[in-house]
Write a structure and sequence with these properties.
- The complex is a heterodimer of chains A (about 60) and B (about 325).
- Chain A has about 60 residues and is mainly β.
- Chain A has one domain (about 1-65).
- Chain A has one helix and three strands.
- Chain A has one helix at about 20-25; strands at about 40-45, 50-55, 60.
- In chain A, strands 1-2-3 form a three-stranded antiparallel beta sheet, with no helix packed on it.
- Chain A is globular.
- Chain A starts with 19 loop residues before the first helix and ends with a strand.
- With about 325 residues, chain B is α/β, with parallel strands linked by helices.
- Chain B has one domain (about 5-320): Aldolase class I (TIM Barrel).
- In chain B, about 45% of the residues lie in helices and about 15% in strands.
- Chain B contains twelve helices and ten strands.
- Chain B has helices spanning about 5-15, 20-30, 35-50, 90-105, 120-135, 150-160, 185-195, 215-225, 250-265, 275-280, 280-290, 310-320, and strands at about 55-65, 85-90, 110-115, 140-145, 165, 200, 205, 230-235, 270-275, 295-300.
- In chain B, strands 1, 2, 3, 4, 5, 6, 7, 8, 9 and 10 form a ten-stranded mixed beta sheet that branches.
- In chain B, α2 packs across α8.
- Chain B is globular and about 55 Å long.
- Classes of the chains: A mainly beta (about 60), B alpha/beta (about 325).
- The interface of A and B includes residues 40, 43 and 49 of A.
- Bound molecules: iron/sulfur cluster and zinc ion (2 copies).
- One zinc ion binds near residues 7, 9, 10, 12 and 22 of chain A.
- Chain B: Catalyzes the conversion of dethiobiotin (DTB) to biotin by the insertion of a sulfur atom into dethiobiotin via a radical-based mechanism.
- Chain B: Pfam families: BATS (PF06968), Radical_SAM (PF04055).
- Chain B: Its EC number is 2.8.1.6.
- Chain B: It catalyses: (4R,5S)-dethiobiotin + (sulfur carrier)-SH + 2 reduced [2Fe-2S]-[ferredoxin] + 2 S-adenosyl-L-methionine = (sulfur carrier)-H + biotin + 2 5'-deoxyadenosine + 2 L-methionine + 2 oxidized [2Fe-2S]-[ferredoxin].
- Chain B: InterPro entries: Aldolase_TIM (IPR013785), BATS_dom (IPR010722), Biotin_synth/BioAB (IPR002684), Biotin_synthase (IPR024177), Elp3/MiaA/NifB-like_rSAM (IPR006638), rSAM (IPR007197), rSAM_sf (IPR058240).
Chain lengths: ~60, ~325
């Protein structure tokens, strides 16, 4: 498992303050920032899911 | 003074005549104690003039982000520091999305692009997309591609687009506080051209953007004047980085009063739950809205945000014994 360094919702460091609201937000929207390098990802939302791609760290899918 | 609900019962339920702007202000000002009665009346109106069926639709973003316009609620404007990046969907992905949508029992699939209006590349992509979908999926295709020229209206009609979405967004008197890169009149023009073309017009807006109750009533009245086939009703979901990003989420009771008011303004229109209901209304409120004037839903996800699972909405409709409208191809 890789350690999550950045918040997928707000892009700030996960160690930097609480991200409770971000975690809640992520139930109703896909992540926008790569949790490894905080680059803005290319996100596509489909009717039943989403994909989010970082040019360095690859693609995430909805579960 | 005669009670507005009594007036609405006679005028809207009895005769199918929508309430005026002034009457809608009274509805929107009605006290919380009257809310249950208001919703019950709006539901009666919907069942009498539209029937029991609920229309189900899925939407997909063909071109996301990077829009030159500055609609202050929108995360897809290229003018704000929103984290949404620009991207195009390819045709196989588009067909896949149409298939996923059809599997839910939806009869409508709306292809959306974040643009001021379509250019040749977008029109070509839409044409190819529609042909590919029609070859594999049985579903009505709608489009939402911004402001159109008459030639583009004709082209879309010829492609077999049966419904076109173009929202007023907000009341005429509040529009300048929401958008500065184009005018209310420009939007209105596109709506008229679409309506006159024979395509079905889908035209709604957003509430909860800081407009007054009077302006909310004004939006409903202006929509009613256009007589759209469908009105999608969005509740502001404040998006990070946009000018409206720090606004409060609208109170659930105000949202429900708005739903009922829109139904009483437009008794015979398809009134659709669009974005923001998950935040504003939650599960309980979603149910109340379906029993308060709503007769159409967007299932699954939106363009850049996620909705409730489609199964949650379909189970709710089954629970409420509301039949899902079946496909009648209008080609
Ligand atoms: S025109 Fe549409 S995509 Fe562009 S900023 Fe306005 S709402 Fe967003
Ligand atoms: Zn965060
Ligand atoms: Zn990365």
């Amino acid at each position: 498992m890789t350690t999550v360094l950045y918040c997928g919702h707000c892009g700030r460091e996960t160690g930097d303050g609480a991200h409770e609201a971000c975690r809640r937000a992520l139930t109703l929207e896909p992540p926008r920032y790569c949790d490894q390098c905080r680059r803005r990802m290319i996100v596509q939302v489909h009717p039943m899911g989403w994909t989010a791609r970082c040019s360095t760290h690859g693609e995430l899918f909805s579960s | 003074m005669t009670d507005i609900l009594e007036v609405a019962r006679e005028q809207v339920l009895g005769r199918g005549v929508g309430l005026s702007q002034e009457q809608l202000v009274e509805v929107l000002r009605s006290p919380d104690e009257q809310l249950d009665d208001l919703l019950a009346l709006a539901h009666e109106v919907r069942v009498k003039w539209c029937g029991e069926e609920v229309e189900v639709e899925g939407i997909i973003s063909l071109k996301t982000g990077g829009c030159p316009e500055d609609c202050h609620f929108c995360s897809q404007s290229g003018q704000f520091t929103s984290p949404v990046r620009s991207v195009w969907l390819n045709i196989p992905e588009l067909v896949e999305a149409a298939k996923e949508t059809a599997k839910t029992g939806a009869t409508e699939f709306c292809i959306v692009a974040a643009v001021r209006g379509p250019d040749e590349r977008l029109m070509a992509q839409v044409k190819a997309g529609i042909e590919a979908i029609n070859a594999e999926v049985d579903i009505n295709i709608a489009c939402s591609l911004g402001m159109l020229t008459q030639a583009q209206v004709d082209e879309l009609k010829a492609m077999g687009v049966h419904r076109y979405n173009h929202n007023l967004e907000s009341a005429r008197s509040y529009f300048g506080d929401v958008v500065t890169t184009h005018s209310f009149e420009e939007r209105w023009e596109t709506c008229l051209m679409v309506r006159d073309s024979g395509m079905e017009l889908c035209c709604g807006g957003l509430v909860g953007m800081g407009e007054s109750l009077e302006q909310r009533a004004e939006l409903a009245a202006q929509l009613a004047e256009l007589e759209p086939h469908e009105v999608p009703l969005n509740f502001l979901n404040p998006r990070p980085g946009t000018p409206f990003g720090d606004m409060e989420i609208m109170a659930g009771k105000d949202a429900l009063r708005t739903i009922a008011a829109f139904r009483l303004a437009m008794p015979k229109t398809v009134l659709r739950y669009a974005g923001g209901r998950e935040l504003t209304l939650g599960d309980l409120g979603t149910r109340e809205g379906l029993l308060g004037g709503i007769n159409a839903v967007i299932v699954g996800n939106y363009l850049t945000t996620l909705g409730r699972p489609a199964t949650a909405d379909l189970d709710l409709l089954a629970d409420l014994k509301m039949p899902v409208k079946e496909l009648q191809k209008t080609l």
